[in-house]
Write a structure and sequence with these properties.
The protein is mainly α. 73% of the residues lie in helices and 0% in strands.
């Protein structure tokens, strides 16, 4: 122990030794920083998927424009639900987030937000989201949102993520729920068209996320999370990506005979399928050639998957307004 340790503040000043300033409490930080920290807890970039999938499905269910009030109420409720689930996910995963380079700057790891505050925030957003959707949209959508929160927080984060390499497959169910919420917000029910669109996003999730897990496989290995690219060979991962891509494309075409879509959607679905099919085929060939890193280009598949889903749901949104 040094001479100043255990001394009173006045002793330290008398000795001419400057005290090391402690990190400010979150409540003492500028309001702008505090707000930014809480927004980060909701993972706003991930919630982009909410916009990509929910609005087009609402257009399709309505056969045109739903009321602006309904759209806003559904999107706000969906954002609150996803944000609450994401905050609770950060609370539960704060130990492994601290071990990974990709997540080391999250608010709980940096100390910007305390775990207790994050827990209260996540629970509050989750409860408010269900009540919001129930009171302003309908209780079918509210129930689906509540189910999505439980699936993501309990089924994926608490049960699957650290135990199985298929974590992202089954845990991805929560990420598909905005499709069902969007449809039910307009109709109050869930149809087969909505189910097949749900399956599109469900089967899309593995080939979307595994390339990202491939790039950060060392991070996941260090954190002890058994993502498939960590525990399986690259060839095994590529084969499963092909499998899920085929099912995804088949699901995207399965809605056509149901009569809710027309030629615009069909053409767009064909173009999107050809585009992403090419990326997956190229990735698989390069994998079997033994290429890695930049030569393998896993992130081109990751970004391409986002573009695929965007194309598909944009044409889904346009289709109700075009008669050919």
């Amino acid at each position: 122990m040094t001479a100043t340790q255990g001394a009173s503040p006045s002793d330290s000043r008398t000795a001419g030794v400057a005290s090391t300033p402690s990190a400010p409490e979150p409540s003492r930080r500028p309001l702008r920083e505090v707000i930014r920290g809480y927004v980060a807890l909701t993972k706003p970039r991930i919630i982009e998927l909410l916009l990509i999938t929910t609005i087009p499905v609402m257009f399709l269910a309505e056969g045109g424009f739903p009321s602006l009030g309904l759209i806003l109420a559904t999107l706000i409720g969906g954002y609150l639900a996803a944000g609450g689930a994401n905050a609770l996910n950060m609370y539960l995963d704060r130990d492994i987030d601290a071990k990974m380079k990709r997540t080391k700057n999250r608010p709980l790891v940096t100390g910007e937000i305390s775990p207790r505050s994050c827990l209260i925030f996540g629970i509050s957003l989750s409860i408010v989201s269900v009540l919001w959707l129930g009171l302003l949209v309908n209780w079918a959508s509210a129930g689906l949102a509540g189910a999505a929160i439980l699936l993501y927080v309990v089924f994926y984060t608490m049960i699957l993520k650290r135990r199985t390499s298929q974590n992202i497959v089954w845990g991805g169910i929560a990420g598909c729920m905005p499709v069902l919420i969007g449809w039910s917000s307009v109709t109050g029910t869930v149809s087969w068209t909505a189910v097949f669109l749900f399956l599109v996003v469900f089967f899309w999730t593995p080939p979307h996320y595994w390339p990202l897990a491939e790039k950060f496989s060392k991070d996941y290995e260090t954190a002890g999370v058994p993502m498939l690219p960590v525990v399986a060979s690259r060839r095994a991962v590529a084969r499963q990506m092909v499998f899920y891509t085929v099912l995804m494309i088949a699901s995207s075409f399965a809605i056509v005979p149901l009569g809710h879509t027309g030629i615009v959607y069909l053409v767009g679905a064909i173009v999107a399928a050809a585009y992403f099919g090419f990326l997956i085929a190229r990735y698989t060939v390069r994998t079997y050639q033994g290429k890695t890193g930049r030569a393998l280009q896993p992130m081109s598949v990751f970004h391409g998957s986002i573009f695929y889903l965007t194309i598909l749901f944009v044409v889904l949104a346009i289709d109700p307004f075009v008669s050919l």
